[in-house]
Amino acid sequence: MGWVAVLVVVSVAIALIAFRVLRRKGRDDGEHGSSSVDFSANLALAVYLLVLAYAAVLCRDALSVSEADVQAEAESLTEMYWSVAPVPEAAPVRSQIRRYTAQSVDLDWPLMARSEMSPIPGQTLMDMRAAVLRLRPVGEESKNLQQDTLDRISEVSHARIVRGDDASTSLESIFVISMILSGLLVIALPWTLGVRPTTSSIVADLVRLGVVVVGVCFIILISHPFSGLGAVEPDAFKAAQRQYDQIDGLFPAQP
Hints:
Layout: H1 2-25, H2 34-84, H3 91-112, H4 119-133, H5 140-168, H6 173-188, H7 199-221, H8 235-250
Helix pairs in contact: 1-7, 2-3, 2-5, 2-6, 2-7, 2-8, 3-4, 3-8, 4-5, 6-7
C-alpha cells in the first residue's frame, strides 16, 4: 500500500507541475510535429497495455496456484486427522495436528504477506512425526493407519515448503518498471509539444494519467499472492479445524 500512495502522489505532483509550466511558457495550439508525437504516444500506450495485460495474467495465475496449494495442504491435514482418529493412543497426535493448523493460521499468515514463514509450525510438524513414530500399534489395521499418517505428514511437510515458495514469489520488477516507463511516455509525450493547456486538453491529460496510475496500482496490489487485493486467506485451514470437530464427534479422543 505504501508504494501505491507514493505512486499516486508523485503522479499528481508531476501533472500539476506540467500544467503550471505549460500554462506559463506554452504556446498556442498548432500542428508542429503533432502527428509524430501522437504516433509515439499511441505506441507507448500499446506497450503499456500489453505489459499490463501480461502482468495481470501472471498475477492471477500465481493467486490461483497459491490457493490450490493451500487447499491441498488443508486436505492432507484433514486426511491425517482421519487416519489417527481410530487409534486410541494417538490422542496427542490429534492435539498436534490441531496445534499445527492453528499456528499456520495465526503465525504463518501474517508473515507470509512479507514473504516470510514462522519456524514454530515447522517444529510442531517435526514433533508430530516423532510422536507418530513412537506409537506402538496393535494389529495390522493400526499399523496401516500409522503408515498412512506418516505418509500424510510427508505430504503436509512438502505442502508447507511449497506454501513458503508461494509466499516468497512476486511479480518480477521488470514488469512494474516497464509499465511505469511506458505509462510516463503515454502521459508526458503530448506535453513535449509545449502547447498551452486548455480545459479539454487538461481533461484528456487527467484521463491518461488516471488510466496509467490505476493500472500500475492494480498490478502492485495483486502482485503478491498473500497480500493486497484477492490475497489467499487461510479459509481452507479454518474449514479443516471445523472438520476436526466433526471427526472428534465420530471418534471421541481417549484420555
